[in-house]
């Protein structure tokens, strides 16, 4: 009897020890708030001709303020509604969901996640929100919601070209032929890159070409593209970017011609001299000559600044007419008109 009683009293104790050990009491359980990241607040969307690209920033803190070291993945929720049947006062019926990869997050790191939404249906409104996943059954609260309208994109503009001037570039393109649903709703956005850099929007959307860009510097290389925008009451849809057209604006304004040109015959040849031209930065001068029988003068010499004298050692022994022009430092140089001709007798 006593032996049997001892066995019965020991058995519950063993069971209790096994239960306590199996339930994880060796380590205290972690409350969900300690591991769940705060809700994502900067979900945003960028549309292109293929669909939508969603992006957001990795949360850095949990709901209790601890640093987030890793987010295994993100859960995206999507809803779509046909425009014709959309109820703006009804709750959004999210049904479809997708995952996007997460990853490790270094201390004080700003990391961005992206997700491409493709295969969108024309004539539909789309709604998205995202949550961070901290475990198999642990998700953060909802992010902010983004919504957009999708329709068949217009064609990309063709025939893009650029005409450069002094301190300006004028971009031309062929207007896109709208479909029946796009009639009267098309506009265009010009994009610009400088010296091989990234392309960004320049100016505001416009309803027709051309676009004149005056915020340029002479001598730099500018690359332009154009995108068509089809606007609807529910939003806008963008075409692909056009082909690239490049241009380099140059200062094409001519300098002033030299003044007080004179000349005389010497043993070395005909000596021509003049006063320095006023105005913009100069590189030098060009000297022209003709005979009385010639209607057009010929270039016979060029001198660099700061010389203002030229000896025509090959001048023929006949009556001659000379004129002088100024050239600036551009490549190719801009040339002034010629001075008044002077006569050198034989």
What do these coordinates show?
It is a single chain. It is built from one helix and 23 strands. Strand 11 (186-194) and strand 12 form a beta hairpin. It has one helix spanning 2-22; strands at 44-48, 51-57, 70-82, 96-104, 112-117, 124-135, 138-139, 146-150, 158-165, 168-174, 186-194, 200-206, 211-213, 222-232, 235-238, 245-247, 259-266, 269-275, 282-291, 298-304, 309-312, 320-328, 342-344. The chain starts with a helix and ends with a strand. The strands form six sheets. Strands 3, 4, 6, 7 and 8 form a five-stranded antiparallel beta sheet that branches. Strands 11, 12, 14, 15 and 16 form a five-stranded antiparallel beta sheet that branches. The protein folds into three domains: 32-150, Immunoglobulin-like (Sandwich); 158-247, Immunoglobulins (Immunoglobulin-like); 259-344, Immunoglobulin-like, CATH 2.60.40. Mean pLDDT is 88; it is low at 1-31. By secondary structure, the chain is mainly beta. Helix content is 6%, strand content 46%.
Q: What is the fold's blueprint, element by element?
A:
Elements: H1 2-22, E1 44-48, E2 51-57, E3 70-82, E4 96-104, E5 112-117, E6 124-135, E7 138-139, E8 146-150, E9 158-165, E10 168-174, E11 186-194, E12 200-206, E13 211-213, E14 222-232, E15 235-238, E16 245-247, E17 259-266, E18 269-275, E19 282-291, E20 298-304, E21 309-312, E22 320-328, E23 342-344
Antiparallel strand pairs: 1-2, 2-5, 3-4, 3-6, 6-7, 6-8, 9-10, 10-13, 11-12, 11-14, 14-15, 14-16, 17-18, 18-21, 19-20, 19-22, 22-23
What is the CATH topology classification name of the largest domain? Answer: Immunoglobulin-like
Low-confidence stretches: 1-31
N→C terminal distance: 154 Å
Determine the strand fraction and express it as a percent band.
over 45%
- Estimated helix fraction: under 10%
The CATH architecture of the largest domain is Sandwich
Which descriptor suits the 3D outline? elongated
Helix tally?
A: 1
- What is the string of SSEs from the N terminus onward? HEEEEEEEEEEEEEEEEEEEEEEE
């Amino acid at each position: 009897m006593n032996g049997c009683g001892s066995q019965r009293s020991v058995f519950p104790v063993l069971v209790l020890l096994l239960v306590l050990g199996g339930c994880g009491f060796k380590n205290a359980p972690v409350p969900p708030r300690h591991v769940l990241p705060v809700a994502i607040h900067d979900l945003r969307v960028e549309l292109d001709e293929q669909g939508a690209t969603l992006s957001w920033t990795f949360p850095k803190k949990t709901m209790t303020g601890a640093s987030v070291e890793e987010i295994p993945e993100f859960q995206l929720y999507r809803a779509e509604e046909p425009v014709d049947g959309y109820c703006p006062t009804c709750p959004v019926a999210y049904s479809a969901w997708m995952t996007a990869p997460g990853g490790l997050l270094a201390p004080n790191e700003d990391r961005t996640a992206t997700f491409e939404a493709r295969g969108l249906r024309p004539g539909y409104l789309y709604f998205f929100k995202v949550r961070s996943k901290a475990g198999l059954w642990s998700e953060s609260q909802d992010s902010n919601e983004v919504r957009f309208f999708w329709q068949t994109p217009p064609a990309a503009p063709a025939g893009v070209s650029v005409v450069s001037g002094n301190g300006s570039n004028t971009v031309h393109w062929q207007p896109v032929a709208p479909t029946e649903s796009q009639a009267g709703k098309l506009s265009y956005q010009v994009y610009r890159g400088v010296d091989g850099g990234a392309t960004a929007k320049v100016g505001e959307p416009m309803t027709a070409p051309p676009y004149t860009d005056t915020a340029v510097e002479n001598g730099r290389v500018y690359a332009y593209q154009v995108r068509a925008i089809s606007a609807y009451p529910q939003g806008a849809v963008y075409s692909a970017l056009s082909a690239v057209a490049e241009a380099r604006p140059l200062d094409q304004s001519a300098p002033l011609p030299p003044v007080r040109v004179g000349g005389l015959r010497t043993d070395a040849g005909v000596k021509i001299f003049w006063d320095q031209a006023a105005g913009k930065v100069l590189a030098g001068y060009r000297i022209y000559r003709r005979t009385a029988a010639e209607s057009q003068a010929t270039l016979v010499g060029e001198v660099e600044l700061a010389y203002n004298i030229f000896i025509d050692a090959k001048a023929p022994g006949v009556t001659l007419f000379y004129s002088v022009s100024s050239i600036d430092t551009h490549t190719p140089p801009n040339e002034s008109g010629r001075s008044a001709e002077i006569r050198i007798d034989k």
